[in-house]
Amino acid sequence: MFGLVDGNNFYASCERVFDPAIRQKPVIVLSNNDGCAIARSAEAKALGIKMGQPIHLVPPTLRRQLVVRSANFALYGDMSDRVVAILRESAPRVEVYSIDESFIDLAGIRDREAFARDLRERVQRWTGIPNCIGIAPTKTLAKLANKLAKKGDGVVMLSSREAQRSALDDFPVSDVWGVGHQWTAKLAPLGITTAGHLRDAPTDLILEKFGVVMTRTQRELRGTPCVGLEDIEPDRKQIMVSRSFAARVEDHEAVAQAMATFAVRACEKMRRRGLVTAAIGVFASTDSFRPELKQHHPARTVNLPTSTGDTRIVLATVRQLLRGMLRPGYGYKKAGVNLMDLGRPSELQGDLFAPTIAGDDELMSVVDRINRRFGRGAAGFGASAWQPKPAWGMRQQMLSPNYTTSFRDLPRAAC
Questions:
Q1: What does the alpha-carbon distance between residue 119 and residue 89 come to, in Å, rounded to a whole number?
Q2: Which of 145, 218, 369, 391 has an alpha carbon 20 to 30 Å from 212's alpha carbon atom?
Q3: Cα(292)–Cα(290) distance, rounded to whole angstroms?
Q4: Is 9 left (phi over 0), alpha (psi -120 to 50) or beta?
Q5: Range 121-127 average pLDDT
């Protein structure tokens, strides 16, 4: 039996935890560079704010009613870790599915509904994050139960056939986990508009029209588990760090500095997972939303002779890739670095004539430890913008403090 714990309106809820003044107000969180709404409180949804809606298209009269925040992923990530820590203390196995969703294993728990209600209350009391829990014999049904829980009292259990049948018959197929809008459009001509329709459709027809993945979804809707709990995250094959700039950048050195900063961040993520890279890609892009401007979208990739986890080697490679890649007079709006062909050092095939791994692992380990202990930027590389705020940085004009990850931003209480 699976449970799915989902933080309600997670980003908006994180903003409210340390700012009681906005708890009853409509809150939206904007994407990088303060562009579009990526999270909305229930009050903002009631006002008609859509997911992905550009803030500049919100009418001024409506805009004045909103509390608007820039995305603060440092805060959201730390709050997510706190929620997951509570789940790991409570459930035997936990799969972190996303920053705001986790599957838990409820096998061996006698009164699962009582357990879920206690867990839900504990998460909210200890972190301030409201949440809902769906319980079912498959992960697909648990996701479905969680959506129903948001409309009810916070916990829904679909353990019996009768409860599943009643829930699926009126549930839109577009909201079923793994179906999406494209499959919904192809299912509609077959008369499949609800989860119950998909569950009852002939398996041969689903297999012929949509393949084995949709057939697996159908079996999960019938209560047959086809997807297990992944309590160990599988190794990534690539790590990309990219950003849109606050303004178009024509200075190639500034773009190179941005690329170097992205490379440093990507290497930190890679080493934290115990991986090394064997291929590096870079790309840049002009403003595709301004077709009247000159457009250029270059990209380059190179295979490394030897895998590495050393930021210095990655930075030198990125610098080589950038030579002659950007055109004079073009304003670039976005850039990124992609580390590919990732693997664990212990799994790499040796070479008689060259070392298996290039670089200085001990030096990188020291740099990572310094930054973990004293904060990001305490030790860095000169090619990147690791100390001053760069001109190409993101626009975050409504950024909340990093309440939980920065001593300077600790909330203050007056007695």
A1: 10
A2: 145
A3: 5
A4: left
A5: 97
- 405 CB-contact burial (10 Å; exposed 0-12 / middle 13-18 / buried 19+): middle
Neighbours of 170 (CB within 10 A): 10
Helical packing angle, 252-272 and 311-322, nearest 10°: 150
Residues making up the chain, counted from first to last: 415
The rounded distance, in Å, linking the Cα atoms of 25 and 19 is 11
Residues 6+ apart with CB under 8 A from 233: 96
Cβ partners under 8 Å of residue 300, min gap 6 = 281, 282, 283, 321, 325
Residue 388 pLDDT: 57
User: How far is 203 from 92, CA to CA, in rounded Å?
Assistant: 34
Beta strands in 294-381 (DSSP E): 299-308, 332-340, 357-358
- Given a cut of 60, whether residue 195 has pLDDT beyond it is yes
pTM: 0.81
Average pLDDT over residues 68-73: 93
% of the chain surpassing 70 pLDDT: 98
Check: CB of residue 197 under 8 Å from CB of residue 188: no
Judge whether 408 and 400 are in contact, CB under 8 Å: no
Would you state the structure tokens that stand for residue 191, as one six-digit string? 């008369």
pLDDT for residue 415: 77
Q: What is the dihedral of CA 285, 288, 293, 297, to 10 degrees?
A: 30
